[in-house]
Design brief:
single chain, 3 helices
Length: 65
């Protein structure tokens, strides 16, 4: 049986929390920021939790986390 490999793209984007969920950075905050309002950019600062329906799929991508 071969070793399980971690999906490196997912590993860079998601971190597992102590309770078993995943946190991730909000998207749309990298470039073309001049046309986005200050309020919109401010709300995108904070980390967000992954929805519980997506956790099972991410567990397959990150078996060793």
């Amino acid at each position: 049986m071969p070793k399980l490999k971690t999906n490196s793209g997912a590993a860079k984007r998601f971190k597992r929390t102590a309770s078993g969920g995943f946190k991730h950075k909000q998207s749309f905050r990298n470039h073309i920021l001049t046309k986005k309002s200050s309020k919109r950019k401010r709300h995108l600062r904070h980390n967000s939790m992954l929805d519980h329906s997506d956790v099972a799929g991410l567990n397959r991508l990150l078996p060793n986390s």
